[in-house]
Amino acid sequence: MDIITISREFGSGGRELGKRMADMLGWDYYDREIIETVAAEEGMDADYVQAVLERHEWWTVPLSFRQSFTVYSASNTELLLKEKEVIERIAAAGRNCILVGRNADFFLRSYDPFRIFVCADLESKLRRCRERASDPASLSDKEILRQIKRIDRNRAAVRELMAGDRWGSRDAYHLIVNTTDWEMKPLSAAVAEFARQYFERKKQTS
Question: Which of 10, 79, 81, 206 has the fewest CB atoms within 10 Å, counting from its CB?
Answer without folding.
Answer: 206
